[in-house]
Amino acid sequence: xxxxxxxxxxxxxxxxxxxxxxxxxxxxxxxxxxxxxxxxxxxxxxxxxxxxxxxxxxxxxxxxxxxxxxxxxxxxxxxxxxxxxxxxxxxxxxxxxxxxxxxxxxxxxxxxxxxxxxxxxxxxxxxxxxxxxxxxxxxxxxxxxxxxxxxxxxxxxxxxxxxxxxxxxxxxxxxxxxxxxxxxxxxxxxxxxxxxxxxxxxxxxxxxxxxxxxxxxxxxxxxxxxxxxxxxxxxxxxxxxxxxxxxxxxxxxxxxxxxxxxxxxxxxxxxxxxxxxxxxxxxxxxxxxxxxxxxxxxxxxxxxxxxxxxxxxxxxxxxxxxxxxxxxxxxxxxxxxxxxxxxxxxxxxxxxxxxxxxxxxxxxxxxxxxxxxxxxxxxxxxxxxxxxxxxxxxxxxxxxxxxxxxxxxxxxxxxxxxxxxxxxxxxxxxxxxxxxxxxxxxxxxxxxxxxxxxxxxx
Length: 458
Prior knowledge:
Order of helices and strands: HEEEEEEEHHHEHHEEHEEHHEE
Structural class: alpha+beta
């Protein structure tokens, strides 16, 4: 998976969206938790505030005091984070919880109405931030009205500690949730891109000759692409057929003039104009070789764009050998064939037959008593060796052998195109061949072809 792959882009987008979504969700949950805790603290402060208001009394000398002890022992512990304070505005009096010690809450100078609770954030002991709830309370409104400011406070450190603890607890679960989302995204991307993988497999099957067209059972989003590929394959097949027809017409069109030129050369030779006849024969031979070469190239170009197939090597070799054994020369030779059954070449059977036929015909032509055909097979290539015990070729001529139209022995029938055709076929199917002296004494041809799959070769 590379940076340019669609899967990488989709997974990256999914990872980014999941990260952003979970980050927002995390911040939202922490804020919601903090708001919930603050509401609980506010409710707690309200309870303490009601308790204080309900327990304020006047002494005989007119001073105020809080009857009884607070049910929360934190108010008795210095700097515990729970505080209360009562101020009398008529007779300046200040009552404080033991937890405030010698600190006085600097209450806000705002307009208080009786019974209305005001909420503040004030600085407390040691510079800590406090949540303060304050209420004005009128004591004995019919006799001696005493306006009291009653305030209770709690340290925000408790809220911050609860928020941090909640954040630490929720992070692992957010991580697990992110992992689950990413796994689900990967499965979704894999499932969503599976039709494209099927398209790739279908195109490979077309290229390997297993089928001619892609199937039509694809999702609606992929079907237009499949239709375009099938139309492209249809146009290609029509172009190949047109090229084949044009090539055949060209060959037929040139065959008649070449035959006529050959007849003219024979008439001139009978008249004694041997020089002119020889020139015409040479021109006819060159033109025939050129036409044969272009016909072969046209066929191979068409085959290169058509569907390559998988062809078992053994049946093709056996068929060619049986044909050559029926020839006068082939009947006199011994044929040794050792080819594994699993050897499969990734090319059409007719081109493999033409390749093997040219090589075995050449070996049959020059062999004295024996032609040997062996093959080795791997997952990548098929190696075919064809050797004979004939006179062979001199080392200096091996490099020239195989040039189109070259014949090292002008006394033996042939066009000199056999090995050239073999080279063209090998090149068209990403193969190759080499020539060397055989241990049998004659020529050894080593052919390498791409391997196929035996189960596909039907």
